[in-house]
Amino acid sequence: MRVTVCFHSWFKDMAGCSRAEETLPPGSTVDTLVARVLVRFPKLADAQRSMLVAVGLEYRGRDCALSDGDEVSIFPPVQGG
Amino acid sequence: MRVTVCFHSWFKDMAGCSRAEETLPPGSTVDTLVARVLVRFPKLADAQRSMLVAVGLEYRGRDCALSDGDEVSIFPPVQGG
Amino acid sequence: MKRHLTITMEPIDEASLLAGRSVSSAAGAVVCFLGMVRGTESGKAITALEYEAFERMVEHQIGLLFDVMGKRWPVESVRLVHRVGLVPVGQPSLWVEVVAPHRAEAFAACQWLIDELKRVAPIWKKPMGAGGR
Amino acid sequence: MKRHLTITMEPIDEASLLAGRSVSSAAGAVVCFLGMVRGTESGKAITALEYEAFERMVEHQIGLLFDVMGKRWPVESVRLVHRVGLVPVGQPSLWVEVVAPHRAEAFAACQWLIDELKRVAPIWKKPMGAGGR
Question: B-chain residues within 8 Å CB-CB of C117?
């Protein structure tokens, strides 16, 4: 399956792009995807602990199963207000 | 000594006036004055428990000593806002 | 702490109060409160509340509250307007604005001020019904 | 519960937001909050904050907060405006208004909403100094 990864805020700077495509084996989770992303964008490794993940428009944990076509957003702690 | 008594809100209606003068013996307190007022304006007796008293612009208790020329305000619970 | 208090018979003019606001670059939070006259009082329909105030004492007592507020919270500015006389349903009788560096203190100070005002400001209200009283 | 949410690059126009307010005769309390950009960030002088938002998700997440708010408090109306892009020091980045029958619930709901917004809305800020960054 294919998913789109979107980076926000300074994760975008670390990744050097705002979007990337990943092809994952069936049964993949957010965790699978994050591991893949960290290999491809090693500068994000340091930020791993503060990383937030949304699938579509919902926050999701690392064990969330992904589906073909999902848009997964990866970003640092939010600072609205 | 002479003090001026001011009634506010519905205490004014009960008293039938907004101000009254009282002449009190030296050493009188708010308590002395209130007792005098209740005799002169008996309709206020029922409201005695919820009565608030200010001397000048400060809330005062029943044991507060009065001075010649004091303005003593007597009113029901406040409802600002 | 800048402080401003108005007791007035006139309608509260929020727009001009906003226009008169000045905040420093240290201010991170502005909290405003409007107390509106509701259409019912003790379960009965009313058309207005008639507010009466012992004005000199209101000013003094609220001044004391401002003093305490300035000691308890790092408030940059507080403004309070209380309308008296006849206030129709749907219109504000009270407007309060607190400006402070951070929102927690702005909210705390504003709520405290309103609670205390209701406790100590010698103001009274009379419900006015459709028939006049 | 009436609800209104705007994410905008434009300056927050408080006067026109006020003009657009409608309150029923059951509303006794209006609480407004303005979050202002302060002149210092982490102890350093700044000239502005640059806000970035993942807008679709901000709208969805704040929509969920409005849902919870409407269940938890008898709020009549909630309006929230968040400015994004460059917001100069001294200008508001956030405006929130909550209208409710009584003040305790209006304050509680408004504070809760701001706390939750800061927790869940995907918005980020970058301090901009005198030299551009």
Answer: 80-81
List the D29-36 sheet strands across, edge first: C2-8, C77-83, C92-100, C29-36, D29-36, D92-100, D77-83, D2-8
Cα D80 to Cα D95: distance, rounded to the nearest angstrom: 6
Whether pLDDT at D4 is above 60? yes
Helices (H), chain A: 10-15, 30-40
Which residues of chain C fall below pLDDT 70?
131-133
Q: Where are the domains of chain C?
A: 2-18+27-128
- Give the CA angle between residues A73, A78, A80 to the nearest 5°: 125
Backbone angles phi, psi at C9, to 5 degrees: -85, -15
Measured in residues, chain A has a length of: 81
CB-based contacts of D112: which residues, under 8 Å, 6+ apart? D69, D72
The helix (run of H) or strand (run of E) holding residue D85 is strand D85-88
- Substitution target in D13, D22, D32 with the highest count of C β-carbons within 10 Å is D32
Quote the mean pLDDT of chain A.
97
Question: What's the gap in Å between the CA of D98 and the closest CA on chain C?
Answer: 10
Q: How confident is the model at residue D131 (pLDDT cuts 50, 70, 90)?
A: low
CA–CA distance, B32 with B53 (Å, rounded to integer): 13
Residue C61 CA to residue C58 CA, distance in Å, equals 5
Point out which residues pair with D49 in neighbouring strands: D87, D127
List the single residue in B with minimal CA-CA distance to C115.
B81
Q: In this predicted model, what pLDDT tens digit does every residue of D34-53 receive, in sequence order?
A: 999 999 998 899 999 999 99
In CATH, the number for domain C2-18+27-128 is 3.90.1170.40
Structure ipTM: 0.95
Neighbours of chain A (3+ CB pairs under 8 A): D
Q: How many CA atoms lie within 13 A of A36 on its CB side?
A: 19
Kindly list the residues from chain C whose CB atom is less than 8 angstroms away from the CB atom of residue D31: 31-34
Cβ–Cβ contacts within 10 Å for residue B40, how many?
12
CA-nearest of D6, D22, D19 to D92 is D6
